[in-house]
Amino acid sequence: MVEPRISPDALCALLGPAQPGTPAYRWLSERITLLVADGRVLPGARLPSERALSTASGMSRTTIVRAFSHLMDTGFLDARRGSGRVVRLPVHDVPRAREPIPTSGSHRTTDTPLDLTSAAPSAAPGVFEALRSALDALPSYTAGSGYVAGGLPVLRRAIADDYTRRGLATDPENVLVTSGALDAISLLARHLVRPGSRVVVETPGYPNVFAALRLAGARLVGVPVNSPEVDVPALLDAARTTGAVAILVTADFHNPTGRLLDESARTALVDGARRLGIRVVADETLAEIRLDQDLPMPSPVGGHGSGAMLVGSAAKTYWGGLRLGWIRASRRTVADLARARLSGSLADPVLEQLALATLLHDQPGIGDERRAHLRDARDTAVRFARERLPGWDVPVPPGGLSLWCRLPVPASSELALAAGRRGIALAPGSSFSATGQGLEHHVRIPFTLQPDDLAHALDGVAQAFDALGPAQ
C-alpha cells in the first residue's frame, strides 16, 4: 500500500476547529486518532513535520510534539528515518480485511448465519425465461466448437447497443466479454500493471478488486472517500505524486457508500488523467441500480474523453449466476486484451451469453418494477436500522444495494465478532479499506435479504452493539 504525504493544509482541513476546554495536545492527538480509525487518514500516510503543521495550524511546536509523542506511545505513529512521522494502526485481536463474500452457498438453513456480508440480489424477473429461450437457440451453435474468443457477436452487439442507449456510442468491436466484472478487472490489471506499479484507488472500496490488483503486482495508492462527493483533485494529485499507471473508480453508486459521480467530476477526472498520460478504469457494476426514479444519470465515464476503460457486469442487474461481465474500451485495447486472455480462458459459456443477449435486448436496465422493489428494500433497511440502532448515522444512498452506516464509536471489528456470536455474518469496516485496516466507525448493511431476515439480522446487530457495553 502506498500513500502520498498529507500536506499541512489538508491535515488542518481534516482536523477541523479545536474543541474549547480541551488541552490542545490532547485534542490534536484525539482528532488524528479518530481520523485514522475512521479511514480518513490511512495507515502508511506521512504526516507533516511539526514545523510545517505549526505554521499551517497556528499551534505551537511544543503542542504538536507532545501530541505526536502521545500518538507514538499509543501505537498510531511511527518515526521512520527519511519519512518522518508515518501513520499506523495498533494491532488488536480483531478480524481485518475479510472479503465480504458468502462462503456457505446461496441457500440459508436454520444452521447458517444470516449473511450481511453479501450485497448480491436474487435473479431478476425474466432470467429463467431468457435461459429457456437460449436453450431453443443453442442447437444452431452446437455445430461449432463453442469457443468464441471475445464473446458471441450477438452479445457484443447487445452490450454495444446498451451503451449507446446510455449515451455512449459503441460498436461491438469496442466490447470484450469476460467471466464477470472481477475477471475483467483482473485482465485489465495484467494489461496495465507491472510488478510494483502504482494504482490509485478509492477507499473504502470493494476488497476483491483490491486483491485482484495486488495479485497483478500493483501497489495501491489509497485516496479516502471523505464525503458524498469524490475528491477528484486528490485522486489526480495522488496519481501525479506517486507515478501511478491508472486510477480505478466506481463512478456509479460506489460500493459501499452509494455515491454518484456527477458530469463535471467525470470530465475533470478523465481530462486530468489524460494530461498525466495514465488510464482511468471505471467499475460500472452498479451503474443500473438507480433507486430514485427522478435522479438524473450522468453519461458513462467513457463519454467524457478518450482513454477510459469501462467494466460492466450482469450480476447486479440480472443475476450473479450468469457469471458474465465485459470491458468497453478502444478497438485496439479490446484486441490486445482478447489475445492476452487466451492464456487463461478460451471463451465463456454459450448458453449464458445467449441468455444475457436476450435480457439486454428485451429488458435493458433493471426496469421500473424491480427498481421499485429495490427502493422499497432500501427504505425498509433504513427504517429498520434507524429504529434498532438510534445512535447510528444511516444515510440514504441514491443507488446501489447497501447502506454505509457510521457508528458513534470506532468499534466495527468488535461488533463483527459480537454479531458472529449471535449468528449474524457482518463485515467490519476494515474489510473495505485499501489497507485492510481502519474504517472502524463504519459497517456495510446490504438490503438484499428478505424483509423478515433483514429485521432479524438487524435485531442481532443491535443486541451485539449493546453488548459492547462502555465501548459504545
Automatic annotation (TrEMBL):
Claim: DNA-binding is one of the keywords in the record: yes
Q: Which InterPro entries match?
A: Aminotransferase_I/II_large, HTH_trans_reg/aminotransferase, PyrdxlP-dep_Trfase, PyrdxlP-dep_Trfase_major, Tscrpt_reg_HTH_GntR, WH-like_DNA-bd_sf, WH_DNA-bd_sf
Q: Which UniProt keywords apply?
A: DNA-binding, Pyridoxal phosphate, Transcription, Transcription regulation
The GO terms this record gives for MF are: DNA binding; DNA-binding transcription factor activity; pyridoxal phosphate binding
Show the CDD domains listed in the entry.
AAT_like, WHTH_GntR
Q: Where is the HTH gntR-type domain?
A: 22-90
Q: Which domain of life is it from?
A: Bacteria
Output the Pfam families linked to this UniProt entry. Answer: Aminotran_1_2 (PF00155), GntR (PF00392)
Q: Does the keyword Transcription apply?
A: yes
Which family is it part of?
In the C-terminal section; belongs to the class-I pyridoxal-phosphate-dependent aminotransferase family.
> What is this protein's name?
GntR family transcriptional regulator
The species is Sanguibacter antarcticus
